[in-house]
Amino acid sequence: MVPFCYEWDCTHGDIEECDSNGRHCGSLDGDTGGQTKPSVPGRKIKI
């Protein structure tokens, strides 16, 4: 099982990070991998 899911957000130019349940964990910088935005409560993707 993969602990995190990563998806490129071409609109904002960053990487969206979600946990293994699909809950949003924040946005990451595409170059450094550092977190640029906090998680959004209630945001979830279907995995």
Summarize the SSE layout with pairings.
Layout: E1 4-9, E2 14-19, E3 24-29, E4 35-37
Antiparallel strand pairs: 1-2, 2-3, 3-4
Task: Give a quick summary of the entry.
The protein is mostly beta strands.
Write up what this structure looks like:
There is one protein chain. The protein has 47 residues and is mainly beta. The chain has one domain. It is built from no helices and four strands. A four-stranded antiparallel beta sheet has the order 1-2-3-4, with no helix packed on it. InterPro entries: ColE3_ribonuclease_sf, Colicin_E3_ribonuclease. Residues 5-46 form the Colicin E3-like ribonuclease domain. Residues 28-47 are annotated as: Disordered. GO terms for molecular function: hydrolase activity, acting on ester bonds; ribosome binding; RNA binding.
Helix-residue proportion: under 10%
User: What share of the residues does DSSP label as strand, in percent?
Assistant: 35-45%
Order of helices and strands: EEEE
Number of domains: 1
N-C termini distance: 12 Å
Strand order of the largest sheet: 1-2-3-4
The number of E-state strands comes to: 4
Shape: globular
| Mean pLDDT, all residues | 92
Protein name: Colicin E3-like ribonuclease domain-containing protein
Pfam family, one: Cytotoxic
Region (Disordered): 28-47
GO molecular function, one term: hydrolase activity, acting on ester bonds
Primary descriptors:
ribosome binding; 0% helix; four-stranded antiparallel beta sheet; mainly beta; 47 residues; ColE3_ribonuclease_sf; single chain
